[in-house]
Each structure stands twice: as C-alpha cells, then as structure tokens.
Amino acid sequence: MASFAHALLPFLIAAVAGLSPAPATCYVNPGGNLHLQEQDDQGNAMLRPISFLPTSLTDSGEPRLVHSYTEAFTGFAARLTDAELDAVARKPGFVRAFPDRTLQLTTTHTPEFLGLRQGPGFWRDGAGYGKGAIFGLLDVGIYGAHPSFADHGLAPPPPKWKGTCAGSASRCNSKLIGVKSLERRNCIYRGEERKVVAGKIVICEAVNNLLPYNTSEKSILRDIKSAGAAGVVLINTKADGCTTVLYDYGSDVVQLTAADGAKVTKYAASSPSNSATAVRFNHRTVLGVRPSPTVASFSSRGPSTITPGVLKPDVLAPGLNILAAYPPKTLLGAGPFDVLSGTSMSTPHISGVVALIKSVHPDWSAAAIKSAIMTTSDAIDRNGGPILDEQHRNANAYATGAGHVNPARATDPGLVYDLGAADYASYICALLGEAALAVIARDSSLSCAKLPKTPEAELNYPTIKVPLHPAPFTVTRTVTNVGPAASTYTAKVVAPKSLTVRVSPGKLVFTKAGEEKTFSVTVSGQGGDVLEGSLSWVSGQHVVRSPIIAAAGRRPER
C-alpha cells in the first residue's frame, strides 16, 4: 500500500481580481528559474521567487511576497494585480494560478451520535480510543491552555514522535505533543478595514480577513433593537431552508426555518387586526430532533470542477451546531467554548475516525482508510429513510457522497479499494500530463511515458461515476480482502428502471487475507441529467457499498 513520500504540487498563485494588489498563492515548476535563500531564522530552506515578482512595492508600501512554500508544494503567496498576474503566468516555470478566497473560521454529543460510547465496545476495546495515533493539524491557531487540551490520564508521547514544541516546552503536554508556527505575516490589509481599525490593536487571523466576521445579522438585530423593538423573529432565507445555525442573539430573538417563517409572515400579513399569541414553554430542551442527519445548506456540493469524473464530496460528517473549544477573549468570541458550524467542524470528526482506524490497522494506506470510511457509511438517516437536504428533500449524491460516516463499521469494512503511488501517477498523467506529474510526484522514477494513463472513471475509487448514455460504458475496480480469509461476496445492485447495471463476475470468492479480485461494472441508461444507483458486495458479515452515478455529458475518451 504505497503512498507518495514527497508530494510536490505545481506553483499556485491565488490572486484576487482587481486593480489593487491582493494576496495570492502560486504554484511553479521547481525546475524553473527559482532561487532559494540559504535558510530562514529556524534553519529551513525558503523559496525566493525573485524571477517571478515585480521588484517594486505595492502602492501602499507593502512587500509583494507574503510567504514561500517548499514542502507540500513549491510556490509562493504574493500580492499582484491582474496585469501583474498575467505577466507572471507568461514566465518560464509557471504552472497554474488560482484566485485567493476568503474562508470562514468555523463536541460533546457527536461521539454518541456516531455510535461511539464510553465503556465496553468498539471505541474502547476495538480502537483503544485511538491510542498511539499521532495527527498533525494545520489551523489558524491554537490555545494550548484550553481545557480541551488537558492530558489527564494520557501516557507520554509514543517513541516514534520526533517533533518539538516551538517557543516553550511548557506549551505542550501528553495530548498536545508538538507546536510549530508556520505563518507570521497575514493580516488585514484592505484599505477600508485599516480606516476602521486605525489607532487600535488588531488581532491578525490567517483566514477570513474580512470584518465583521459573520456578525452582519447581529449588527442588523442590534439596530432593530436600538430602534425600540421588543423582540425579533429571525427567519432563514429560502436557500438555508431548515438549516438553523445557532448563534447567541439574545433571549428576545427567535430563529425560524424558512418554512416556519413563511407561516408566521403569512399570518402577520393576513390582517392588521391579528393579535399576537404568546406560547409559554415549561419543558426541557428537545433532543434527538428528526430527521437526522441532514445535509446543511452550507455543505459543499459536487460535482468537482477539477475532477468531474470522480464523485465529490466523499462523505458526510457532523458539522452543524457543534460544541467546540474556542480561544478566550478574542475578536471572534468570548470562549472557552462555543457552538460552531461549518466544514471546519466536520473535519475533526473525520480526523478522529481516521485515527481510530489507523490505531487498529497501522499498515493501511490513506486510500484504504478512505475506502473503509466511504464503503461503510450510512446511506439512510436514523429513521431508516433517505438522507434529506436543507429543504428536507431527498439529498442527491452530489450532496451526500457515499453517505454519513459510521465509525464503528469503518474499522472492519471487509473489502477496500486501495491505491498506490503508481496508480495516482497514472491518473495524473491522464488528467494533467507529464509536467504536472513532475511537480506533484517529485519522483524521477515516475514518468508518463512508462505508465499507463488511467481515465478518471477507471481510478480505483470507492465510488463509480460514468456518463449517462444508452450505449454501455464499462469500468473496472479491484478490491482487497481485509476481512476473514475465507470470504464470499455477492454483488447486489440497486438502480432505477431507466439505469441498467451489470456486474461481472457477480460473485467474489477469497481464500486468504490480502487477496485481490478485479471486477467490471457496465452501465447504460437515459433520461434526466443524473441517475443514481449503488453496488454492494454482500457477505455474511459485511456490506461494502459504492454509489453509482451516471451523469449526462460528453463521454470521456478511453
């Protein structure tokens, strides 16, 4: 189960459109005309892209270079106008540019929701609470004194840990075992914001450098209350539907879904003489609200614009109204805990599940772990019905991916769809070509001339996406037995009448652990833009489910 030991992406420039220079991140070819400084103040090599950037400062006197990158990819972040970015793009060594984006910073009940409970069971007995797993988190900051990082009852870091605690050893303990600062120069640069904060102490954040940090609704409510209102009914937009993100607006503000808000609005507008009705609640907080889980309005949707032939997203995880650790006394809140929502809340849940799987299967590759999470995920909600979206309509695969993560099943998937370095290299060759392979793989032994080209549909991924067409389209997949040595799996297909799916062979017989079996899936159909189905390999102990998506569009070249 191989993986890239050194991943190198092309040089990426993230530039904001406009006439004023804005922060940007650039990917470049390391074989181009770049020059490295000797070392930074911590002894690390730093990229100095002097041949790419204008020599002058910006009009406001700021340096062009924001940051340079040499590890996960070779590149730099810089402040460039549109015209300057066009000039950079024409220089030798330039590979690709992406515009910078403003991102928003975004658990107590979720372990139980995910089927992870204290005491006897998988979490304690099967995965040992993830004992010995080490995870590196790249985030906008950390407050080591927060109670969530207390190490009560934890053993010292495992011997394999070779990291350090930058600044002071007192910042770390047996839970937070290492800290390193990576970014020192990303602050608020916009002119209008400088006017607001002139003469004041400003806290710099790595992302979301746009004031007022998602407080627009609070500002509106404050203005309404200042005008003398006795209270406020805050109604979701139609786009947000039934996704109600929890904020502390105060006791005189009521939040409603779009549907409930429409009823209130209709009643209020029906007659000027309608009297208000007060309802008094003497009950405790209602828990276990159904349907659950549902897809939040802000959850990312597919298809991917970069790899449209691979289904995205991969999987769902809890991310709405999560009680999370929070730094105290910051510009964003009072801390030390807050209720937050967003992909930034889903990510730690998946990271924790990965840690549990890795502790049980330390030899598994990242692709095998991803496959285990995806093929064991739940395609139905807790009532046994389809997972719904924010409008409480059936969510499609572009919203749910393979389904909602199920940690207790993920450590014992039965079969996995594995991928190694050569598999990814063949995929990159077909999608992006030789130049991209050189900067992504950073491995001279890998060459598109020596590798087969793997189309997106043929990537050994746990999902299957094919063109929707009356003519049959066939893809192949290979699964590895990670369950009992003697296992037999039978193919089970679920598909609408307008979608025909044939699997060959229809039965997979394994005689040993680690054994691989290859099968083909042939799909044909017509009607609509997207048709969805699934293929499950079923044994007496396991169900290994993969979504099948047939989407209208040009048939890919084979």
TrEMBL record:
Gene Ontology molecular function: any one: serine-type endopeptidase activity
Keywords recorded for this protein, A-Z: Hydrolase, Protease, Serine protease, Signal
Task: Name it.
Answer: Subtilisin-like protease
The question of whether Signal is a record keyword is answered with yes
PANTHER family per UniProt: PROPROTEIN CONVERTASE SUBTILISIN/KEXIN
Q: Where is the Peptidase S8/S53 domain?
A: 266-381
Domain named Subtilisin-like protease fibronectin type-III: residues: 458-549
Q: Which GO terms describe its biological process?
A: proteolysis
> Signal peptide location in the record?
1-18
Q: Cite the Inhibitor I9 domain residue spans from the record.
A: 54-105
Q: Protease: present as a keyword of the record? A: yes
Query: Which InterPro entries does the annotation name?
Result: Peptidase_S8/S53_dom, Peptidase_S8/S53_dom_sf, Peptidase_S8_Ser-AS, Peptidase_S8_subtilisin-rel, S8pro/Inhibitor_I9, S8pro/Inhibitor_I9_sf, SBT, Subtilisin-like_FN3
Q: Tell me any Pfam family this protein matches.
A: Inhibitor_I9
Organism the protein comes from: Panicum miliaceum (Proso millet)
Please state which protein family the record places this protein in: Belongs to the peptidase S8 family.
